[in-house]
């Protein structure tokens, strides 16, 4: 409880981790607010069904609050009014202020008296899209800071955020976001593509960094594995020990 997990990918797609955490927290009985800026609801639902979870059923019973960023952006840009009469969570596209998005998260995860979910979880896929939509790095960092105060500190919940990073990119704003997130995370799952290129038996490498240094003077714990993504699961193994090699 109260932990901030950063999912970071470089030279590959780390979205399989988002699907894992989404299905994991729903099965665990947690209340989940999913800010999905990258894909449509149907995409996440199809993958979740392969993992044995129905997002539609979770929405109907009030366990999942889903913000479909792609549709909300179009509604906002083409002037369609919100049916509920509430301001759009993506109002920052015209105001460069992420307060409406934060209010959406806070309202979604603040427990009602009748609810008995185990704990609130905020899931964001992916944070880099906010920069592409016109938000400033400072506004994005402020948004994450306020979410941490409410979700992690006050509600004793968890936050899981995905960011894309590129070592040779000249996008200074995205680099600032990635570095700041790394400094404040309790756990970092860093997925990288193989430096040697494509391989059908090894899809990439994952570095698991447990930030012990946040709470003490000890060094961070780092574990490195390679992985292969299959249809319904992911297999992990030590470097150089894939089935193709053995």
UniProtKB/TrEMBL annotation:
Organism listed in the record: Chauna torquata
Family: Belongs to the ELP6 family.
Location(s) in or outside the cell: Cytoplasm; Nucleus
Highest taxon of the lineage: Eukaryota
Protein name according to UniProt: Elongator complex protein 6
Gene3D superfamilies in the record: P-loop containing nucleotide triphosphate hydrolases
Gene Ontology CC terms, in alphabetical order: cytoplasm; elongator holoenzyme complex; nucleus
Pfam families on file: ELP6
Gene responsible for this protein: Elp6
Pathway: tRNA modification; 5-methoxycarbonylmethyl-2-thiouridine-tRNA biosynthesis
GO biological-process terms attached to the record: tRNA wobble uridine modification
Coiled-coil portions: none
Keyword annotations from UniProtKB, A to Z: Cytoplasm, Nucleus, tRNA processing
InterPro entries per the UniProt record, alphabetical: ELP6, P-loop_NTPase
CDD domains on file: Elp6
């Amino acid at each position: 409880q109260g932990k901030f997990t950063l999912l970071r990918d470089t030279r590959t797609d780390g979205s399989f981790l988002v699907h894992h955490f989404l299905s994991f927290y729903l099965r665990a009985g947690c209340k989940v607010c999913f800010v999905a800026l990258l894909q449509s609801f149907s995409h996440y639902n199809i993958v979740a069904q392969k993992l044995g979870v129905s997002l539609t059923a979770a929405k109907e019973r009030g366990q999942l609050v889903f913000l479909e960023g792609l549709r909300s952006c179009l509604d906002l840009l083409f002037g369609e009014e919100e049916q509920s009469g509430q301001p759009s969570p993506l109002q920052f596209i015209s105001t460069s202020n992420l307060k409406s998005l934060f209010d959406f998260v806070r309202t979604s995860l603040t427990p009602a008296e009748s609810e008995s979910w185990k704990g609130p979880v905020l899931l964001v896929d992916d944070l880099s899209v906010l920069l592409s939509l016109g938000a400033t790095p400072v506004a994005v960092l402020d948004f994450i800071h306020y979410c941490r105060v409410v979700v992690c500190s006050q509600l004793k919940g968890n936050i899981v955020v995905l960011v894309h990073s590129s070592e040779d990119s000249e996008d200074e704003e995205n680099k600032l976001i990635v570095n700041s997130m790394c400094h404040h995370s309790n756990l970092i799952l860093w997925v990288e593509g193989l430096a040697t290129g494509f391989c059908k038996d090894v899809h990439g490498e994952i570095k698991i960094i447990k930030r012990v240094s946040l709470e003490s003077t000890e060094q961070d714990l780092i574990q490195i594995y390679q992985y292969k993504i299959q249809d319904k699961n992911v297999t992990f193994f030590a470097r150089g020990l894939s089935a193709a090699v053995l």
